[in-house]
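Crash report, auto-generated. Payload:
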Amino acid sequence: MFSSQVFESALSITMFVLRILVPLLSTIVLVRCFVSLKRGRRKEEPVVLLEDLASGLSIPVLYWENSIGRSKSCDIVLPDSTCSRDHAVLYRRASGWIITDTNSKAGTYVNDKKIKEATQIIPGDVITMGTSRFALRRVSEGTVIQQKKKIKQPKISNKKAPSPAGLLGLTNVIHLLLTIQCCFAGGQFNALPFIPFALLLAMSWGLYLISRKLLGRVSFEIETFGFLLSGVGIMLLCAEDFSLIYVQMGSMLLGLCLFGFLIWFMGDLKRVMKARLWIAIAAIVLFAVNLVIGTETNGSKNWINLGFISIQPSEFIKIAFIFVGASTLDKLQTAKNLWGFLGFTAVCLGALMLMKDFGTACIFFITFIIIAFMRSGSIRTILLVLSGSALGVFLILRFKPYIAERFKAWRHVWEYADTTGYQQTKVLMYAASGGLFGVGLGNGYLKDIFAGDSDLVFGMLCEEMGLVMGVVVVVAIAMLILFARNDATRSRSTFYSISACAAAGLLLFQTCLNVFGATDVLPLTGVTLPFISLGGSSMMAVWGLLAFIKASDERTYAVRRKSK
Amino acid sequence: MKTTGWRSLILYIIGAGFLAGIIFFICSYFIQGGSWAIRPSNAHITNNGQLTYSGEITDRDNNLLSYSEDGVQQYNDNALIRRATLHVVGDPNGYISTGAQYAFRTQLSGFNPITGVVSPLGNSITGSNIQLTISSDVSAAALQALNGKKGAVAVYNYKTGEVLCMVSSPTFDPLNIPSDIETNSAYEGVYLNNALSSTYTPGSIFKVITAAAAIETIPDLDSRTFYCSGSTIINGETITCDGVHGNVNFQNGLAQSCNIVFAELAVELGKDTMTKYAEQLGCNTNFYLDGNPNKMSSYNVEEADENSLAWSAIGQYTDTVNPYHMMILMGAIANGGTPVNPYIIQSVTNSIGLQTKTGKTTYGDNMLQQSTAEELQQLMRYTVSNYYGDSMFPGLQVAAKTGTAEIGENKIPTGWIVGYSEREDLPLAFAVVVEEGNYGRNSAGVVANAVLQKAAALYT
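Recovered output after restart:
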């Protein structure tokens, strides 16, 4: 009797120590991932030069896509009154350097021939825009690959650079610590949680080997990040109910496939730009199908039941939405207006309103704002859209007051603890019960509350793993905006930059809605917490969105180009 | 491409919103986490609305008053002590919201923002122990002296702030809750701690407040002579006095509790001065006991005519006062004008034996000039020694004022006594109210003596 008490105390202290270690190690992995991404970033060095034939001066060409024109906002500014404000775009693809005229008045000439469409040029070719004449020159006789070697020259930083395998290994260790906690959930030892652990291990190293050895990609930070968070979510669900992880891990595998497919698909921007119309049509059709045959769950008609499995189409349309919104620089400079995308957004928001899925509608709206701003840079447009939508919201609340009723409990949840504030009060109560380091996996009570493992999962995370881990997880998702911004000018196209920023902003905003909705900082809208919440569609879509951030890292496509 | 670089800064707007939100949440957690977690519906810590395990509540002599085990509230072995300390400790259903079990449940449940409600040691969640400043023996003596009457007894050390006794009647035994508690009128108001959460018509004890106003406002007060013929007409209506005092000076006016003296003073002072002093001495203000607010004493003569103003100065009209407030006022007088704030938590000791909180002596807002306080000390002492007689409080050197508050025709008046002991080794201020007590001297006065004698016997 006495010895069993000692054993229980020892076990409890061990578990407590593990719960302190997990957020600590997770922070290390996240910081190292970011450092690694930062280190891997190319320096702002010219790839090629444009030699002004009149003055003999060289203008460095710094980016993968460069706008040329009189406007100050161009990457290459021509102080030439005969040039248009946005005259042409000079960009690099797998085949080499390409120039395209962006509806300039004077036209663009390559070797004195007026170009009508995108034209490939090689060093030595002469480009004429207005009265300006340039020759394309290499920076040195060295190739671009040598340029890349140049970056890696500082030995010290190279030594410190975190090893991708090491980081993934540390992630596995974190998962192992969670697995051990999971095994002792409920006081009895249970070896079952080692199954998801083994699957996570296999998936992570499988992807690692395919990515690094087969495809020869250099970087693995984004994938490590995704594995870390997905694993935390899976272990949380595993401690709740082992049967939940079948769908969750299956979706994760499909998500990895989607991740790989999207990266391949985005490898050819020409293909992407052509496919955008079809993606938009497919998205609208999917919405229409959802509205016709969708099933209503908790007041929102956002599910399609396929008999053996239910899917949430809006999760996948998030990916399509970014595809439709993002664009390469040459297309941005020629088609400046946002009408097409605005129309598409209106259809999406309308469909979501009809489904009464207001949370997701907000997410689409914010994503629209990000993309619209990154495309146009016009603060005026954004303000116009914002004030227009504020008016719309006002009208909706005016004529459909029952919608406002739903938010009545906001900031007063304790007064509505038996009705509309019920879920939030439970989240606050149980999240606070966990303290900074949680009551232990499987020992919580929030999982018994409706939507505890989806909409309210932040509370469950805090209750069982502690507030520190909860904050680490959501701050990690917030760090995606740093990941995306890191590559905003370094990516191979504005398409990647815009889509990565949109994906990061979308995930962060969704996180805000989930976390702050559950904890009564914002009204409760009922969206999932990326990576953590139970939900197959959500898990798949999150990995799909990660593909955008991965694609904006120029190293993602580096080696493949070399092998051609 | 460079434009996408700066345009991507838009992400920081969402990032800033996120940071603001998460910081707000973390701050809220550290400030309010305890009140979020300590809820009757929290399955981690409660069972049928009761704390599954809670720390011990003990009195100043380490007598166990209550604790909770497996969701069942346990109490002291002695039924008299259980009844006497019920309102300070709390009832099994948590209806007495000022009771320590409910008011200090965050400490008792062991919540702290670091480990939440769990113990890393893995043993059952045991909360902190709370030692109260009250004496269960003195409380028992107070309840016995009340002799079944409704009322309240509040006693505290005016030098340190420790509340020695806070007893409210009616009461009941928490281990044998009477079946007719909801229906029997004898139990009406049983869930209120009358000392802290009730107010009563003060009657003559309010003359202490009027006296303070007069001392600070009227320079030749001591040389004046008033004439009492048993009644007087103010504004066409009668003010009556219990006796016919003839020519009477201010000192004897207070000692003999002459209504005429104070009615005339009130008219002379006027509404504004009366209101100013009533509020300066704590009316229309909340006082707190370790975070629990009292029920405010009320003095409002806004719509009073001169006659009503006169009645208000002798503790009638719409005046209501709170026993806890009166006790603090007596402490202020005894202390030379500034009261020591009362406290009831002597110490909070967490499950690993560390004291996380100890009661400390703190001072409240100044109520009276020192000279005024000293004059009131002298007047109230004179009232006991020359009028009531020290035989009423053998050996205790009490300064006090009694009151007999009329509460309506055909109703037995409420008996009051407020005061303090001048003995250096017994620095206690008190307020006692007895419903249907009639003369304060014979009802509340007897209770006060019994309580103080017990305290003197035990603690000097």
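Post-recovery validation: Chain B has a mean pLDDT of 91.
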